[in-house]
Design a protein that fits this description.
Elements: E1 12-16, H1 22-32, H2 39-47, E2 52-58, E3 61-71, E4 74-82, H3 91-103, E5 109-114, H4 119-127, E6 131-136, E7 147-153
Parallel strand pairs: 4-5
Antiparallel strand pairs: 1-2, 2-3, 3-4, 5-7, 6-7
């Protein structure tokens, strides 16, 4: 699905992701990942009261999303995706910064897993203060690629 020509010129807004957004999320998810989440997985995560799920919009068009869950005393960034047609325009950074605006407190910690082969995502997370803390061997089911484990702590 192509973005309307006007979407790229619209200002970016970030708001809470809702269940009503999932029909726009699913096509981006399928184009972004070789092992995409199911609609049911999104429904479960977006419905958790302890989590933070965000939508990035240009005009009325959803162009990216983030799902982050709270486990004990750690925020786990579960899923971040930007429509492939509008990547490298700061949308992923805007989503992550919106998460930090909502959740950052001194001592807060965040973790995530990312494919080492996804160099642009790894670079984004490093720019945002995440550091590598090891690997999960064979983490990704589609090709058994390891996951790079990254952490960020708020000072």
């Amino acid at each position: 699905m192509s973005q309307p020509a006007t979407a790229a010129s619209e200002p970016l807004t970030v708001r809470r992701l809702s269940l009503a957004d999932l029909p726009q999320v699913m096509p981006i998810e399928r184009r972004s990942f070789s092992a995409p989440w199911s609609l049911a997985m999104f429904g479960l995560e977006v419905s958790k009261p302890s989590g933070i799920s965000l939508a990035a919009l240009q005009g009325q068009q959803l162009v990216g999303y983030l799902v982050c869950s709270r486990y004990a005393d750690v925020w786990h960034v579960m899923n971040v995706a930007v429509d492939p047609e509008v990547r490298r325009r700061g949308i992923g950074t805007a989503l992550m910064n919106a998460l930090f605006e909502r959740a950052d407190r001194p001592g807060e910690r965040y973790t995530l897993e990312v494919r080492p082969s996804n160099a642009s995502a790894v670079a984004l997370y490093e720019r945002l203060g995440f550091g590598s803390a090891g690997r999960r061997p064979g983490y990704y089911h589609d090709n058994r690629e390891d996951a790079l484990i990254m952490w960020r702590e708020v000072r």
